[in-house]
Write a structure and sequence with these properties.
15 strands; FdhD; molybdenum cofactor biosynthesis; 2 domains; Ubiquitin-like (UB roll); alpha/beta; Cytidine Deaminase, domain 2
Length: 284
């Protein structure tokens, strides 16, 4: 898998006193610097691969890119200090479409993000309250509880790199009516995995992603809810808990937010009217 995984020696220790040495497969984590027309914009720690999608999805979440035509092209270029002679594949220069204004990197926003928290460096919640071009509240899609319950296993079954490393998050885009997996991406950062999914949609000119479900392998943070809204995705589901701010944002913006999606149960924190439950059930 090239730069996606790396083999390193490990000492395995058991409480029985038995030890062994063997190689282990790790998920690679490297920085990616995103530039716009040669000007540095952001640095994120990510798993190499699908970098153009990552940049495109990131720009959607920042309100810069709204349609496929807003993102013209991207190219890897030489890293800092190389003079362009050596390509580190850790610097990506993006060209925006005609008439698209580049983002302003003022002091209110530090565009450095880590694999664990895409919100790091943002001065306040107000600094990321960008206005989406897509109103998810008007999406009249309905999803069955049975279909939602099947998504975690479907997501897990397609996590090829996680199977080898156990160290990656996943985000999957599903057709809300059929439950069919449309695209899945993995990354050490859950927000990067989502950006790659959204970036795939940008490059295929499929925004807004109406009538789709975004399924994530971890918790549902404020930022993941925001990314879903910015891409026009009406339903966000997670195997773990949402944050309070994610619930507040989902409620305000009309996003259906599902958490603790495990086995045959789930918690719907916002937008429950979109979830069709079995006839014999109902809300107690």
């Amino acid at each position: 898998m090239g730069r996606i995984t790396q083999r390193r020696p490990v000492v395995k220790i058991a409480l029985s006193g038995r030890t062994s040495r063997r190689p282990d497969t790790l998920a690679v984590e490297e920085p990616l610097e995103i530039r716009i027309a040669g000007e540095p914009l952001a640095v994120t720690m990510r798993t190499p691969g699908h970098d153009v999608e990552l940049a495109a999805g990131f720009l959607v979440s920042e309100g810069v890119v709204r349609t496929g035509g807003d993102f013209r092209s991207a190219i890897h270029c030489g890293g800092p200090g190389t003079g362009g002679a050596d390509n580190t594949y850790n610097v990506l220069d993006v060209a925006l479409g005609p008439g698209v204004e580049p983002p302003s990197t003022d002091l209110a926003r530090n565009f450095y993000t880590t694999s664990s928290c895409g919100m790091c460096g943002k001065a306040s919640i107000e600094a990321v309250a960008t206005v989406s071009a897509h109103d998810v509240s008007v999406d009249d899609v309905r999803v069955t509880a049975e279909m939602l319950a099947a998504l975690p296993d479907e997501l897990r079954a397609h996590q090829d790199v996680f199977e080898k490393t156990g160290g990656l998050h996943a985000a999957g885009l599903f057709d809300a009516e059929t439950g069919e997996l449309v695209v899945l991406r993995e990354d050490v950062g859950r927000h990067n995995a989502v950006d790659k999914v959204v970036g795939w949609a940008v490059l295929n000119d499929r925004l807004p992603l109406r009538r789709h479900v975004l399924m994530v392998s971890g918790r549902a943070s404020f930022e993941l809810a925001q990314k879903a809204i910015m891409a026009g995705i009406p339903v966000l589901a997670a195997v773990s808990a949402p944050s309070s701010l994610a619930v507040e944002l989902a409620t305000e913006q009309g996003l259906t937010l599902v958490g603790f999606l495990r086995g045959e149960t789930m918690n719907v924190y916002a937008g429950a009217e979109r979830v069709v439950v079995p006839v014999a059930a109902g809300v107690a």
